[in-house]
Amino acid sequence: MTPTYPVSNVRRNVLRAWGVHLYTSLGLVAGFLALLAVIDGQLSRVLGFLGLALFIDATDGSLARAFDVKRWTPHFDGRKLDDITDYLNYTFIPVVFAYRYGLVTGLAGQIVLGLVLILSAYGFCQVGAKTDDGYFTGFPNFWNIVILYLYLFHLTPAANALILLFFAALLLAPLKYITHHTQPFHRLTMIVLSLFAVTLLLIGVAIPHVPAWLLGLSLLGPIYYLGMSAYLHFTRLNATR
User: Fold this and answer.
1) Spatial separation of the C-alpha atoms in residues 238 and 223, rounded to whole Å
2) Closest C-alpha to 140, from 131, 148, 132
3) From CA 201, how far away is CA 184, in angstroms rounded?
C-alpha cells in the first residue's frame, strides 16, 4: 500500500527535492565563472571555481538520496542534470583551458581536443557508464586533473597531445574505475582521495610556483586511483571466470 502524506509535508518534500536540483545546477554557474576566468587568464580563479564545482558534485548525491529526489520530483532527471554539469566542468572547460594556455598547438592540437570532446560525450551517454556496484566504466572524464598536471609539468605540446590521446582511448576501453561508492577498500580510498583533495587545494594556492615536493606528493592520489582501479578490475574479472 502506498503511504499517504499530509499536503504540507508533500509540499515541503517537493521543495527540498527542487532545492537539491538547484544546488546541483550551481555547478553550472561555477563552471561559467571558471570559463570566464580561463578567457581572462586568471589561473587561480579558474582553479577556485572548478574546485567549487567539484565540491558541489561531491556533495549533491548525498543530498539527493537524503531527500529522496526521485520520489518527489519523478518527472525530472537529476542524473541528466548532473551529467550535463560534469561534462561542462570536467571536459569542456579543461579543453578550453588546454587551448588557452597552449598545452597543445596547431591544427593537430585542435583535432586532439576535438576528439576529447566527442569521445567524452560518448562516454557520458553510455548506459553502463556508472555501474550498480559503484564503478565507472571507461576513463571517467577527469580531464580537469589530467590537464592540470600537463600544465604543471610543462611538457611539450606534442607530448601533451599523445597523453591526451592515450586517456581518450581509455574512454573506449571497458575498464572499471573506482568511485566513492566502491565498497572494497572504501575507507582507504576515501582517506587517500581526501588527502589528494588537500594537496590540490595547496597547489591551487601556490600556483604557478608549486614546490616540487608538493607536486610529487599530489601524484600519490592519481597513482593510487589508477592502481586500485586496475587491481579491483582484474581481480573481479578473474573472480567471475
Assistant:
1) 22
2) 131
3) 27
- What does each of the 241 residues of the chain score in pLDDT, given as a tens digit? 455 556 668 889 999 999 999 999 999 999 999 999 999 989 889 999 999 999 999 898 889 999 999 999 999 999 899 999 999 999 999 999 999 999 999 999 999 999 999 999 998 888 878 888 889 999 999 999 999 999 999 999 999 999 999 999 999 888 999 998 899 999 999 999 999 999 998 998 898 889 999 999 999 999 999 999 999 999 875 565 4
In a domain, 1, yes or no: no
Question: Could you tell me if 169 and 183 lie in one domain?
Answer: no
What is the residue range of 18's domain?
7-174
104 and 186 assigned to the same domain? no
Distance set, CA 91 to CA 74, 84, 238 (Å): 28, 10, 32
Residues 142 and 162: their CA atoms lie apart, in Å, by 16
- 99 and 118 co-located in one domain: yes
CB 116 within 8 A of CB 91: yes
What's phi and psi for 16, nearest 5 deg?
-60, -45
End-to-end Cα separation, the chain, in angstroms: 42
Nine-digit cell string for 39: 578567457
